Amino acid sequence: MPSLYLASASPRRRELLTQIGVNFRVLASSIDERVLPAEKPECYVERLARTKAEAGLALLAADANACVLGADTSVVLDGRILGKPENRDESLQMLQALSGREHQVLTAVALASRQGCKTRLVASQVGFRSITPAEMQAYWQTGEPADKAGGYAIQGLAAIFVQYVHGSYSAVVGLPLCETAELLTGCNIPCWQ
After folding, report:
1. How much is the pLDDT for 128?
2. Residue 72 annotated in active site
3. Is this structure's pTM higher than 0.70?
4. Which of 63, 72, 89, 147 is catalytic?
C-alpha cells in the first residue's frame, strides 16, 4: 500500500484526515505563498496545493510508493484574497468587510505521487451576519483569528457569525473530505483504515 504524507502543519487538516480514518505522516515543506501578479484566486490556491504536494514528494525520493497530500484555503471577498491578518487592525478590517455579507472560500487539494499530481478545487459560499465592533474586538482578543485565512475559524469561536454555508463545510475548515477521498482512492489509499 502507498505511504501517505500530509504536507501541512495545519492541525485542522490533520484532524479532518483522521476523521475519515486515513493513516498518514506529517511532512514539513516550506514554499513561497505570495500571490503572483494578476493571479486569480482559483489559480492561486490550486498552485499552492500542487506546489506543497510536489515539494513534499521531492523530499521523499527514496520512497517509490510515497503519496503526498497538499492543500490550500483562501477566503475571497469581491475577487480579493483575504490572507492571515498580520495584526489587530488588519483583523478588524477583515471582519468589518465580511460582516453582513457573503464571501467565497476556495480550497484546493492536490495528491502527488510518482505517477503525477492530481488536484481538485472546491468553492463554498459563506454568509456572515452583521458583527458588532465589540464582537470584533472580543474575537480578536481570543487569539483565534491571528493565523486563519480571512481572519476567522468557522470550526471555532467564529461559528456564531456564520448564517449559512453553501458548499463543503470541511473545505471551509481546510480540507474537502469528499474530493480528498476520491483522490486517495485513485492512489489505492483507503479511508476507514
Report:
1. 98
2. yes
3. yes
4. 72
